[in-house]
Each structure stands twice: as C-alpha cells, then as structure tokens.
Amino acid sequence: MRNKLLRINLSNRTMKKEEIPEDVYKKYIGGTGFISYYLYKELQKKIDPLSPENKIIIAPGPASGTRIPITGRYAVGTKSPLTNHFLDSHVGGFLGPEIRFAGYDLIILEGKSSNPVYVSIKDDAIEIKDAKHLWGKLSYETEDKIKEDENEPRMRVICIGPAGENLVAISCPTADSHRNPGRGGLGAVFGSKNLKALAVKGSEKPANGNQEKIDEIRKDIMARAKKAKDSGSEMFTYGTSSAVSFANEMSQYPTRNWQSGEYEDYKKIGGPDMAEAYTAIKRPCYGCPIGCSSTLDAKDFDWVPEDKIEIARPEYETLAMFGGNVGISDNDIISHANYLCNQLGLDTISTGSAIAMTMEAVEKGLLKGPEFEGVKFGNGEKLLEIIEMIAYRKGFGNVLAKGVAQAAEEWGIENLAIHVKGLPFAAWDPRGKLGLGLSYATAAVGASHLRGWPATAEVPDKSALDVIDSLIEQQDYKSLIDCLVVCTFSYVIDGGFSFEDRQKILSALWDRDVSKEEMMEIAQRIWITKRLFNINQFDNYKPIDYDVLPNRFMNEPLPSGRAEGSKAFVSEEDFEKSLQLLYEKRGLDEYGVPTEQEIDKLDIN
Fold first, then answer.
1. Residue 169's domain is classified under what CATH number?
2. For residues 438 and 464, is the Cβ–Cβ distance under 8 A?
C-alpha cells in the first residue's frame, strides 16, 4: 500500500494529499474499516447529513487493483440522510482499482461547492470542474459526456442522476453505467454538495506486499473458480439472478410487501427465463473470474433510447423488489424499472420497498384518493410511473422520496414499513432462516443482508441462542472481506472463500504472518467503531431502541412454504435473550452501548 489519502474540500476547492498513519491501517486495514475510522474521528456530532459538514469517503481495499482476483469492489461511506446512522455501501466494477492506479488508498470529499461541479483525477492532476452543463442529465449521459470532455474513454466515473440532485433520500450514485453503491441515500449527499460526479484515471498498478505469495493466491483462486464453473455453478452463467429460485425455496423471497416468503410466479423471473428471452453480454468486474455481472442487448427492448447499446441485467435484489414484492412477473417491466433507477439514480431495494408498501396500503384501504388510482400489486405501468415520481418528487412520490419509514409515519401506516433504523430490508426474509433477524437488527447501517448470516440452514422454529456465536463469527468474517476488499460472491469458488483465504491475503499484502486473533480483533474494533459513531450522532441514544425488527417479521408468521408458520424468532422473549447474549459477547452493556472496558481495550479513541 502507498497509504495515501486524497482530501478534496469542495467549499474552498483545495486538495491535500496525506499519509494514512501506520497505526490506522494496521487497526482498520482499508475499505469499510477506513470508513468507520474516519467518519468516527472526523465527523462532528449530530450533524445534518445534507450539510457541508458531512463527508463522502470512497475506500478501496489493499487488495483492490492487485493481481488477486475478485477484488474489484470498493466501499463508499457517509452519514446517511435516510437513517441518520452510519453508512457504508459496497459496489463492484472498476472505480476502486482505478483509484489505486491513480495512487490513492482513500478519497475524502468534504464541504460544499457553490455551484455544480465534478472532480477529475488523473494521477497527480486533480481538478474541480464546472458541471452546470451536466446538471439534470441522466447517469449514462453524464458519464459519456465527462469521458468526452476529458478525452479519456477509459476514465472511470461515479455520478448522480436527477434523484440525487433532488436530494431524494433513497437516491444513489451510479458508476460504470450500472453499478451502484445503492443503500442509504448516498446520491442525496452528492447532490447536497453540488457534486455531480467523480472521474478517475490512473496509470500505475499498485505493488503490494509479497508478490510471490500474491501470485500463489491468484493461481489458487483462479483454479478454484474454474473448478466451480466447470461443475455447473449457476453464478457463472446467470449471476445473482440465479438466486430467485433458491430464495423462493427457502421461504425468503419477498412477496407483496413481505406478506409471504414465496411467490407463485417466481419461475417467470430471473436467470433461466431471462437467458432464454434476452441476449446477455458478460461484464465482469475488474480481475474477476466469476463474471456474475452481465448486460442485456438493448435491441431486445423497444423502450431503450436509440443511443444505448446495452442495459444492465437486473440483479437478484432488483428481481425481488421489482418482482414478487410488487407482484410483477414480467422481466421486461423489471428490466425497465431497473434501467430507470440506474439512470435516475435510485436504490432499487428502497424504491421497490416504498412502492410495495404503498400498493399494500392502497389495496387495504389505508390510502385513498384519485392520486392512488391504479396503485396495486401487479400494475407494471404504475410501477414505472411511480419511480419517476420519486426521482422528480412529483405527487405522492415526494412523500416516498423521504424514505419508507418517513412516508409510513406521514401516512400513518407504520406497520407496513419494513425497515431497521430507517433502511428498508434487502430481499431475504428473516422468517426463513434461524437467527438472520438478529443480523438485520444489529447492523450499524440498518437492514442490510451483507453483514453476516449465521452458518445454518435451519428455519426459526426454535431458539436462536445456539447460533449467536456463528452469527458473530460470520459478521466478523464479512467485515474482513469488506476491509480487504474482496467480493462477497467469492463464496462460489470451489471450497468457498474461507477465513484462511482472508488470512493468506492479508498476510501476503502486509508481508508478514497475520494471526487469526489479530484479524478478529480488527473486525471487533470496526464493529464497535460503527456503533460508537451512531451513538455520537444522537442525543441520549440507546442502541437497544434501534436494534429491533418490524412488526411483520416478529408477529406475522409465513403463510406457506418451507418455513410455513415461522416468525423471525419463536418469541419476543427469545429475541430479547438472543440480543442480550450478542451484546454480552460483543462487550456491550444491556442497552447495546460499548463498555468503557471494551473501548479502552480496543484503543479506538
């Protein structure tokens, strides 16, 4: 690692290169670790997320851009305008490695420009440029125009669309045409700073650690990926769209605003059906042998603009939230909804959740009036219409633009809002997996599915106390992946991506043996740091008041399927006991606050 931080202040248009202290990278590694440290140390307490005092942190990991495969991801962090909590959102593609090629391990954007701008980074040449001509443009138009203006067709761009400009709380940036750090309203933070885009072009690949060991790791991962592909793993063919059938079989596929965990028309959605209907074009992230990401030939869709050659194939989460959760089984409609969100800059998970909640409320007579005419499950035309209403804050879309929890409170339909800490649930129902609900409840960001699952296939028809150790271990393993940064889908390689794989990579990058104890201490430190950040951002904050699950998952059992009759926990008492056991094992008090002893031990102040 070069251990270089690039700090860009948009208010006074200054750029500063700093050294990342050795103590910091040894304690936090990179990626989500760096985000947790710098947000905790630098953000003022109780700030408005849309104020100039908030910061955007873009953090690749020490493995990004190296010869180690499956390391094309990076993390983007801020204080969320949707939840007012810690936020780190993760995304694949090419921008993370490109940042390292330009010579940086971390970029911090702070302040606010007085007018729309974009940031151009070409190695040491860093400029803040006027973006008035880009304001109002869709994401792909913005990316194409910046590449043209910079005369750099291979430049990597992350930008916002109209939703971010309009400060929609569920908006997100888009990178590489269709890759999104989607969760928590990052697009609105870009918009609040008048930052339309960040564009990066680097010229030097980073040299990390012990190259001989790195080459050994590369050969091993490539061989295991090939073995998995040859054995017929669907991830290599269909990407995450292959998960629709699996989720449905496990009673975890969200259906009609989570009223069920299985969808009668699931076979019409996703991998095999899309492969038969459309022409897929492989678009893997940087250095990835799995290649789960693909685009679709634009000629297969009559609604695509003439200048578009290809569009993104929807990922699993999108196929769920714009599929079963809104009662739609038309892949053309789902692809169209996904395209709109990519170009307008909206998180498909949060957008689908907001629309599904509205559809249920209308069908149950809880929302009435001419503006809600046609808002019902299965109405694809209305789905597409509402997406644009949200992005441009038109009609009741202006209410949904505030977020699921906020809209539900305004409309008085709180029991239909499926979220934790204000972040809508990702598309995996916790009523289908023992202990999963506790992962959602205790994640610093809210209801993210990418914070570690208990290593069990059991349904929650028994106490979750026996899987708490597994949950904590998997939370920490996931944190370490998000620090390195290694892709979550590395689990599909032959034998899975083990803790030993993580250990070998970090040892090779640091060119010394790194023990399991040291790595687990780092993971615990990051978990605690994120929790302390949240505590700092509120008056009299008790985490236990926010480490909760929505009523639907706690009190409404699944009506059918493998986990028929199951709730997220067998009882409220079991949830409380499981939560307290996790608190105890994490070094927290009964309210979920880290003890002084734990804070001192981790030395994070």
1. 3.60.9.10
2. yes
